[in-house]
Amino acid sequence: MRKLYMVVNEDRFFLSHRKEIALAAQQDGWQVTIVCKDTGQRSDVEALGLPMIDLPINPTGTNLLEELHTLWFLYRLYRHDRPDVVHHVGVKNILWGGIAAKLAKIRGVVNAVSGLGVLFSGDSYNLKTRLIMAAMRYANRRQRVSLIFQNLEDRQLFITKRIATTAQCEYIKGSGVNLREFAYTPEPPYPPVKVILTARMVREKGIETLIQAAELLRPEMQGRVIFQLCGGLHNNPKGYKDYELQALCDGEYIQWLGHRSDVCQLLMQSHIVTLPSYYREGLPKSLIEAAAIGRPIVTTDSYGCKDTVVHGVNGFLIPIQDPQALADRLRQLINDPALRERMGRASRQKAELEFSVDRVIDHHLGLYRKSL
């Protein structure tokens, strides 16, 4: 049986972003193994019938010895188990997994660039970023390597910097959403109108921009609107601490819900979804899930985020780090239920045309076969 190893940072990310692809590959005849850091959800992965190997990785770490240990682990794993295809998700896994696969002479490699974060932000790059580019360029210079990009800007950057060739690059809009699970749902009764953000509690996701916008609106909206932050803490250097979020949220008008496993239900109970991110996103899954449910979206005219919204049709695009612009667009939607309903239906239509997980699965299975 053909062996496919899917390498992601953490078990929880696999379950939220890649589970459907792995299960479809299994049904397609692949022996699928998940390689990721065990954060406590190993049993959930293995309950799906997918073996899991604990990956020694610090997703946000910069300690050179830790990084080389991750590389050495993947090299020994690939050399011993000889998977036919390895699928790396995320920049760090692409970097170390790509080098390991080349050294171990693995037959096929699929690299999924799911956002470039702060590492590739700005017009000029520091020495660390340039070294990473050079290492990925080395790893990709071989046959049967495909790279998946979730937005065209990331794809063009890799081509321009000669990290990959045009022939190696594939464009798939996000990791997809299950349109049956995230079914169109009319908005619930109001007041209160619920505005929700679902993301890791990291500064670049625009958490503070939303809180500042909510404070600008407080004099006219308190009692009519609830702002909800849904997402867990993260060990990212720019991640919030528990006490910081507790200080920023009053628990009533502005609520921090923490990590939740019922995001679909929370979206169904919401009226507006926002993500004022200035992180270099791939294509935010939270926004394509919001589109599938049928909610208007307010997000930034920035990498990845802008690909989920047609301005004025299914939501609004605003400048990054502009709480006043965010407040103005949220006020417009809060005060106009007919606009929310019209934009929500347009969001669902966009999700059906562009974000179906079935389309994403078909594309991935095609790349796996091509890699052989």
Class by alpha and beta content = alpha/beta
**Run of helices and strands:** EHHEHEHEHEHEHEEHEHEHEHEEHHH
Mean pLDDT rating: 94
Main sheet makeup: 7 strands, parallel
The count of helical stretches stands at 14
β-strand number: 13
Spatially, the strands of the biggest sheet line up as 3-2-1-4-5-6-7
Rg from Cα: 21 Å
Note poorly predicted spans: none
Range of helix content: 40-55%
Residue fraction in strands: 15-25%
Termini separation comes to 13 Å
What overall geometry do the principal axes of the alpha carbons give?
Answer: globular
Give an overview of the whole structure:
The protein is α/β, with parallel strands linked by helices and 372 residues long. The chain has helices spanning 11-17, 19-27, 42-46, 64-81, 91-103, 127-140, 152-160, 207-221, 242-248, 263-268, 285-293, 323-334, 337-354, 357-371; strands spanning 2-10, 30-37, 52-54, 85-89, 108-113, 145-149, 169-171, 193-198, 225-230, 254-258, 272-275, 297-300, 315-318. The protein has a 7-stranded parallel beta sheet, sandwiched between helices. The longest helix is centred in the first third of the chain and has 18 residues, at 64-81. The chain is globular and about 65 Å long. The mean pLDDT is 94.
